[in-house]
Every structure is written in C-alpha cells, then in structure tokens.
Amino acid sequence: METSPKVKKAYYVKFETPQDLVSPILEAIRVAATSGKVKKGTNEATKAIERNQSKLLVIAEDVQPPEVVAHLPLLCEEQHAAYAFVPSKHDLGKALGIDITAAAAAILDSGDAQHIVDQVIASIEKIKGGKTDQ
C-alpha cells in the first residue's frame, strides 16, 4: 500500500494554481462582483463561455461530484477563454458575496478589477506553458 503526501486533485483540475495566486483570483471576483458583472454558478458560467462573454472563469477544486464542473476547462480550451482554479467553493461563494458555496463563476465585466484580472490571466498563461490564443 502506497501513501502519497500530496493531496490528489480532482481529475478536472488541469494545472496547479500557486497559493500566492489564489488571493488575487478571489479578489478579482470580489471586486468584479461589486463594480462589474459576474455570473455565478456552473450553468451561468457555462453560458458565459459559450457566448464568448467570459473574461476569466474561476472553478473550485473541491466540487462534488466532480462531473458538475468537469466540462468547464475543456470548454474554456475550445473557446480560448481564460480560466483558473481556487481550492474552495466556500471561498469562491464568499468572494461573490453570497451566503452559499459556488462551484464556478465567470467575470463578464472586470469593473475596477481589470488590472487584477490582467495579472491573473498573464500568470496563468505562464503556468500553462505560455499558450496564448487571444
């Protein structure tokens, strides 16, 4: 029997989000939710990507069952949309200003968070290997 010290991520998590990037991602959501436009939840986020409206999609890593959000990274890749992961759906809900958890959220209008969103997208592109399609 083998024990791994590393926590296994859900299969839909395509890359590791550095811990120092989680706070800016959640801050971008928080600011955009108050000064811009954000879609909350998996269904709304999916529609935003399909309609090419999403500036940044944020997906929680602890969603159960994982099939709820498993299609989102693939859809983002198809649409060349930026996406990131945060460890907790509880923290994502809190950043959105709602009293429940959120599996996903899409920033449609960054509002006052534009500079944070730009930095997050640039950091994620570096993590993913510098693939830019936009």
UniProtKB/TrEMBL annotation:
- Please list which residues make up the signal peptide: none
Q: Which GO terms describe its biological process?
A: translation; tRNA processing
**Cross-referenced SUPFAM superfamilies:** L30e-like (SSF55315)
Which family does the record claim for this protein? Belongs to the eukaryotic ribosomal protein eL8 family.
Q: Which domain of life is it from?
A: Eukaryota
* Annotated ranges, domain Ribosomal protein eL8/eL30/eS12/Gadd45: 25-115
Where would you find this protein in the cell?
A: Cytoplasm
- Protein name as annotated: 50S ribosomal protein L7Ae
Q: Which InterPro entries match?
A: eL8/uL1-like (IPR050257), Ribosomal_eL30-like_sf (IPR029064), Ribosomal_eL8/eL30/eS12/Gad45 (IPR004038), Ribosomal_eL8/Nhp2 (IPR018492), Ribosomal_eL8_arc (IPR022481)
Keyword RNA-binding present in the record's keywords: the answer is: yes
A GO CC annotation given for this chain: cytoplasm
Keyword field:
Cytoplasm, Ribonucleoprotein, Ribosomal protein, RNA-binding, rRNA-binding, tRNA processing
Q: In the record, what terms sit under GO molecular function?
A: rRNA binding; structural constituent of ribosome
Main subcellular location? cytoplasm
